[in-house]
């Protein structure tokens, strides 16, 4: 496998721990957790790993500014601007409400959660709407380019082949930790995490299954996206591996009433993890994926004796966002 330029940012390897109390409470399979909420950059999360490769590429390109985009409570944006601060880049974030019907924050509304941290790390923020995000991101990049700022564009969620390659390395890291499991379960959205884990499974011979719980897309859309990204990542790494949608396991049964809308399953999962394991989930991603995993356990989806690993991808700063305050 080709070695890509990489900065060391993360606190790696992240721990793999048993979740014995939660497993006893649920009465199903043995449960484990991989703590990528503890990757160490600005309260951690899966974007730390992607940024190790993305920022190395930005540096190699002579960039001086990072531009990316996300929803108002984007963890990806929070971690990107923190990395920009650490490595001396300017950073512009294009932010938008997560649904077409949500308003932009009022000028006098205090910033909370990830948005508070974006400001603390010195982000310049360009506001837009979900429907116009591509155009605004392009315009912002063009303007910075023409102003001679040497911008580097990081895609939504850091999910291009470079970002996804970080999760190939993460799978290698996990396999070296010698904790055999039958299932790896995690939230999947822009697809880089799942593409990397799927490719890593194939390259390094993981014998279990990698199941993404979709956070915001129908299964077929996400399977196509992840398969394309996994194949492109194999190319980038000089490996021959081709993926079709059927190679990618996605469960999209837990979309609830949309991205970022906390429902009963997220609430219950957040409480169960907090009170049985002292682990914080988040309302958008890990709450949804853990809620899905809990539902699958209760339905008897896993066979007796199977071991299930929840790969925690971070996100807990969103617990402190205004919009969720009356929901815990
Ligand atoms: C970005 C993010 C995800 C989704 O990862 P993708 O690689 O975009 O699919 C999951 N959980 C958290 C907490 C995230 O911030």
Overview of the structural elements:
The structure is a single chain. The chain has two domains: 16-45 and 160-327, Rossmann fold (3-Layer(aba) Sandwich), CATH 3.40.50.1100; 47-158, Rossmann fold (3-Layer(aba) Sandwich), CATH 3.40.50. 40% of the residues lie in helices and 16% in strands. It has ten helices and ten strands. The chain has helices at 20-26, 47-60, 75-87, 113-120, 133-146, 161-176, 192-204, 219-236, 264-277, 286-298, and strands at 16-18, 30-35, 65-71, 90-96, 124-127, 151-153, 183-188, 209-214, 249-251, 307-312. The strands form two sheets. It has a six-stranded mixed β-sheet, sandwiched between helices. It has a four-stranded parallel β-sheet with strand order 5-4-3-6, with helices on both faces. Helix 2 packs across helix 3 and helix 2 crosses helix 6 (161-176). Residues 45-46, 75-76, 157, 159, 187-194, 282, 285-286, 313-315 line the site of pyridoxal-5'-phosphate. The site of pyridoxal-5'-phosphate (PLP) has 20 residues, from helix 3, strand 7 and helix 7.
Keywords:
328 residues, six-stranded mixed sheet, 2 domains, binds pyridoxal-5'-phosphate, single chain, globular, Rossmann fold, four-stranded parallel sheet, alpha/beta
Q: Helices and strands in order, then pairings?
A:
Elements: E1 16-18, H1 20-26, E2 30-35, H2 47-60, E3 65-71, H3 75-87, E4 90-96, H4 113-120, E5 124-127, H5 133-146, E6 151-153, H6 161-176, E7 183-188, H7 192-204, E8 209-214, H8 219-236, E9 249-251, H9 264-277, H10 286-298, E10 307-312
Parallel strand pairs: 2-10, 3-4, 3-6, 4-5, 7-8, 7-10, 8-9
Antiparallel strand pairs: 1-2
Helix pairs in contact: 1-9, 2-3, 2-6, 3-4, 6-7, 6-8, 7-8, 9-10
Residues 45-46, 75-76, 157, 159, 187-194, 282, 285-286, 313-315 line the site of pyridoxal-5'-phosphate (PLP).
């Amino acid at each position: 496998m080709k070695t890509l330029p990489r900065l060391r940012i993360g606190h790696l390897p992240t721990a793999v721990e048993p979740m014995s109390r939660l497993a006893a409470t649920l009465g199903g399979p043995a449960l484990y957790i991989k703590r990528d909420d503890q990757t160490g950059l600005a309260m951690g999360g899966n974007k730390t790993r992607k940024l190790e490769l993305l920022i190395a590429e930005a540096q190699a390109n002579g960039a001086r500014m990072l531009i990316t985009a996300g929803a108002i409570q984007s963890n990806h944006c929070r971690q990107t601007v923190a990395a920009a601060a650490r490595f001396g880049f300017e950073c512009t974030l294009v932010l938008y409400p997560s649904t077409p019907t949500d308003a932009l924050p009022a000028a006098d509304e205090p910033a909370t959660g990830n948005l508070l941290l974006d400001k603390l790390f010195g982000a310049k923020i360009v506001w837009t709407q979900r429907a116009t995000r591509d155009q605004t991101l392009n315009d912002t990049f063009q303007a910075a380019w023409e102003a001679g700022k040497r911008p580097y564009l990081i895609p939504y969620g850091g999910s291009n082949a470079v970002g996804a390659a970080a999760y190939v390395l993460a799978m290698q890291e996990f396999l070296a930790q010698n904790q055999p499991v039958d299932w790896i379960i995690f939230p999947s959205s822009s697809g880089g995490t799942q593409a990397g884990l799927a490719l890593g499974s194939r390259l390094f011979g993981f014998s279990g299954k990698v199941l993404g719980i979709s956070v915001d897309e129908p299964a077929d859309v996400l399977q196509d996206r992840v398969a394309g990204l996994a194949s492109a990542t194999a190319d980038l790494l000089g490996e021959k591996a081709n993926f079709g949608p059927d190679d990618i396991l996605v469960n999209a049964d837990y979309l609830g009433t949309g991205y970022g809308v906390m429902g009963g399953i997220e609430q219950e999962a957040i409480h169960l993890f907090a009170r049985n394991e002292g682990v914080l989930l988040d309302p958008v991603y890990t709450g949804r994926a853990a809620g899905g995993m809990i539902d699958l356990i209760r339905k008897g989806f896993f066979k007796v004796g199977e071991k299930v690993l929840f790969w925690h991808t971070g996100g807990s700063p969103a617990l402190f966002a205004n919009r969720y305050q009356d929901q815990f």
